[in-house]
Amino acid sequence: MSTPANSAPMALKPAHVRRVRGFWIPATLIGVSALIYAAAALYTEQYAQLSFGGVMGLLQRMVALGLVAIGQNFVILAGSIDLSVANLISVCAVIASYLMQGDPNAMVYGVIATLALAALVGVINGLLVTRLSVSPLIATLGVGMVLQGILSVAFTKLRGAVPKSFQTIAYGNIAQIPFAVLLLAVALSIAGFVLTRTVSGARLYTVGGNANSARLAGIRTERVIVGAHVVASLMAGIGGLYLASWLGAGTPWVGRDGGYGLDSIAVVVIGGTLLAGGRGGVAGTIAGVFVFATLDAVFNMLQIDAFLSQVLRGAIVILAVGAYTFRSKGHVA
């Protein structure tokens, strides 16, 4: 009689352990980063950085990279990668500005057209990877170079500006919480729900874990991978719209100079997602974004050369991959 009662907790233990581990990584990253941020603010006597407004400013630093990284998380979970996002951000920011031309009546049209273009780029990336069997690294790098070339040639004919009302996205707030932070929170919540509570999310993990097994199980792996690339491109498009709102206009270098391509991959890896695919989640990814945001803020407070920040970012990525590979005992990121 006692055997079933005693065996029940043992049956539940693996799932419980997975949940604890899934929580441990982002909680540790956020906790340590927050402590370093607070220590830097106290050391430099910049106490305003610890106020509500200062914290909201820190969170707003996360928005652009956070949006792009959420999309990057999808393609990496599927066992792919997207190096075109940085240039796609620039394209979307420029196109949105050109279509709106400062006219509030053109905002809806500009947003829809921009996101449609982003989705098309995602479809192209996905088809190159699945139908033509081009390496994701090469396919998306090539698409990114094409986008950058188009911008370089056509930018002089695509100048424009977003209307003041559109800049509310970047500068508006509700109850002193920036709209941009709320946008990131909504995107994060939707992504987390899709990955953990839907069939599509389960299929994404399955395809990333073992595409051949997923195919034998009846999953249309090509659709899953193309869908992941569309999500990544749409999130890059939303990031481009946000940056156009922040700057008031799109520029050909806003995505590239922002480092959103490699940084989005780095924060996904720091958050515990395997580059091989099949394991990870957006909670760890957003924690990785928080690490980079606090790192930039701390370097600004300490007035340290920004180039050293890049060195430290690289070291963090290497240490994170090494730690996860060692802990996984057999998984290679």
Automatic annotation (TrEMBL):
This is Autoinducer 2 import system permease protein LsrD. GO terms for molecular function: transmembrane transporter activity. The complex is composed of two ATP-binding proteins (LsrA), two transmembrane proteins (LsrC and LsrD) and a solute-binding protein (LsrB). It is found in: Cell membrane. Signal peptide: none annotated. Keywords: Cell inner membrane, Cell membrane, Membrane, Transmembrane, Transmembrane helix, Transport. It comes from Pararobbsia alpina. Part of the ABC transporter complex LsrABCD involved in autoinducer 2 (AI-2) import. Probably responsible for the translocation of the substrate across the membrane.
